[in-house]
Design brief:
The complex is a heterodimer of chains A (159) and B (233). Chain A has 159 residues and is mainly β. Chain A has a single domain, classed as Aromatic compound dioxygenase (Protocatechuate 3,4-Dioxygenase, subunit A), CATH 2.60.130.10. In chain A, a hairpin with a 5-residue loop joins strand 2 and strand 3. Chain A is globular and about 45 Å long. Chain B has a single domain, classed as Sandwich (Protocatechuate 3,4-Dioxygenase, subunit A), CATH 2.60.130. In chain B, 8% of the residues lie in helices and 26% in strands. Chain B contains four helices and twelve strands, in the order H-E-H-E-E-E-E-E-E-E-E-H-E-E-E-H. Classes of the chains: A mainly beta (159), B mainly beta (233). Chains A and B meet through helix 1, strand 5 and strand 10 of A and helix 1, strand 1, strand 3, strand 4 and strand 9 of B.
C-alpha cells in the first residue's frame, strides 16, 4: 500500500492541535511527553522567504527518548517550548502551517555539544550548518530562528 | 522505516496554491541515515483521550444540545504500507461547521458560528488499527487564493504512529463532492490516484439507521523496512 498523501494543515490547526488557543475549544490540550533530562526552553522566530513572520504555524519538538512538546507560533511569529534536554546533541523539530504542503523536519543542535561530529551534520553543506545550531542564552534557554526560505533558509531533512 | 516516496505527496512549491509561494523551502531536503527514521516517537494512550473527544456532535454543545448539520460517522483503519493495522495511533481532528465556518479567532467567513460545535476531536486506534468518530458534515467555504477559490468539504487529520518519521498531517474529502475538482489545495496533489486516496467513501454497512451516515477513510503510514532476516523467512 502507498502512504496517504500529505495536505497542508491550513491556518486553523490550533483547533485540533493546540485547542484552547485563538478562540478554539472543545477538547483539552494534548499533554507534553516528559523525558528523563531536565527541561530546557527552546525558542526563536519563524519567518518565510520574504522575511515575514509566520504567525499560524505549529511546531513540535521530539527526541528519540520519547520526550515531545508542541507550540503554536504566536502573533509575532515567535515560538517557545520546553522539553527535556536529550542525551543526543539535538532535538528534532517538525513544522506545519498554511502554505506548507508537507510537514517540515529539521533539527535544533545544542551549541554546547560536539554537534560537528553528529553524522547528520556530515550530510549538510558546511555553509548551511549554522542554520541548525542554537545559541545559548544567559538564562539557560536556547534560541534558534527558523527561516522557511530565503537567503538564510534553514536546512530541512528527508526523515 | 521505508523511505518516503516524494512522488506521492505535493511538492513544497505549488504556485497554484498561493500560500506556498513564500513558505516553500527552495533548497531541497537533505537525506538522513536510515537509523534516524527508525527512532521511536512519543507514545500516546487512552489517558490522552477525553470521554467526549470522539463525539464532535456533542463535545462542545450546550447541555442536551447537538451540533447543527448532517450527522455522520467517520471510521477506518490506520495501516502501514504492508497493510498491517497500527494500534495506538493518535488522530487529531479539526473541521469547519456545517456552514463552512471554523471556530477560530482568525476565521471571519460570513457563515455563523454554531454555538454547539467546536470542530475539534481526538481518537486513538484500537488493537487492529481501527478508529471512529461522530461529527457533522462540514460545509464548503471560500478562501483567498485568486478571484474565486473554494475548499471542498473536508476534515483535517494529524496522525502520530510509532515513529516520528510516520508523522502525517492531511485532509479527508467526501465521495461525490463536485468541489474537489476545483480546489487549488487538492490540486497540489501529484496525480488523480493521490486525490482518490484522500476521498472517504460512503459506507452504508456502517450507517447508524435513523441516526447517521457512515464514511470510511483508511490512512496509510510509512512501514517498517524489511530486514534481511525477514527476507529469508
Amino acid at each position: 500500500m502507498k502512504e496517504t498523501p500529505s495536505q497542508t494543515a491550513g491556518p486553523f490547526a490550533h483547533i485540533g492541535m493546540t485547542p484552547g488557543e485563538r478562540g478554539t475549544r472543545g477538547i483539552a490540550p494534548l499533554a507534553a511527553r516528559e523525558g528523563a533530562g531536565a527541561a530546557v526552553t527552546l525558542h526563536g522566530t519563524l519567518t518565510d522567504g520574504e522575511n515575514a513572520l509566520v504567525a499560524d504555524a505549529l511546531i513540535e519538538a521530539w527526541d528519540a527518548g520519547g520526550a515531545w512538546a508542541r507550540c503554536a507560533s504566536d502573533e509575532a511569529g515567535g515560538w517557545r517550548l520546553d522539553i527535556a534536554r536529550p542525551d543526543a546533541p539535538f532535538v528534532g523539530l517538525y513544522i506545519v502551517a498554511r502554505g506548507i504542503n508537507i510537514g517540515l523536519h529539521t533539527r535544533l543542535y545544542f551549541p554546547d555539544t560536539d554537534w560537528r561530529a553528529d553524522p547528520a551534520m556530515a550530510r549538510v553543506p558546511e555553509d548551511r550548518r549554522a542554520t541548525l545550531v542554537a545559541s545559548g542564552e544567559a538564562d539557560g534557554a536556547y534560541r534558534l530562528d527558523i527561516h522557511l526560505a530565503g537567503a538564510r533558509e534553514t536546512v530541512f531533512f528527508d526523515v | 522505516m521505508t523511505p518516503r516516496d516524494p512522488a506521492r505527496h505535493p511538492p513544497a512549491l505549488t504556485p497554484g496554491y498561493f500560500s506556498s509561494l513564500h513558505r516553500a523551502p527552495r533548497a531541497g531536503l537533505i537525506a538522513l541515515d536510515p537509523e534516524a527514521a527508525d527512532m521511536r516517537g512519543p507514545v500516546f494512550g487512552a489517558g490522552d483521550i477525553g470521554p467526549m473527544d470522539g463525539d464532535l456532535i456533542r463535545n462542545a454543545a450546550r447541555p442536551g444540545g447537538t451540533a447543527l448539520g448532517p450527522r455522520i460517522v467517520v471510521h477506518g483503519a490506520v495501516l502501514d504500507e504492508a497493510g498491517r493495522g497500527v494500534p495506538g495511533a493518535l488522530l487529531e481532528i479539526w473541521q469547519a461547521n456545517a456552514g463552512g465556518r471554523y471556530r477560530h479567532a482568525r476565521d471571519g467567513y460570513l457563515a455563523p458560528l454554531d454555538p454547539d460545535f467546536a470542530g475539534a476531536g481526538r481518537v486513538l486506534t484500537d488493537a487492529d488499527g481501527a478508529y471512529r468518530f461522530d461529527t457533522i458534515m462540514p460545509g464548503a467555504y471560500p478562501f483567498p487564493n485568486g478571484p474565486n477559490a473554494w475548499r471542498p468539504a473536508h476534515i483535517h487529520f494529524s496522525v502520530f504512529g510509532w515513529s516520528f518519521a510516520q508523522r502525517l498531517v492531511t485532509q479527508m474529502y467526501f465521495e461525490g463532492d463536485p468541489m474537489i475538482a476545483h480546489c487549488p489545495i487538492v490540486a497540489t496533489l501529484p496525480d488523480a490516484e493521490a486525490v482518490e486516496a484522500l476521498i472517504a467513501r460512503y459506507d452504508p454497512d456502517r450507517d447508524r439507521p435513523m441516526d447517521a451516515r457512515a464514511f470510511r477513510f483508511d490512512i496509510v503510514l510509512r512501514g517498517r523496512r524489511a530486514t534481511p532476516m525477514e527476507g529469508v523467512a
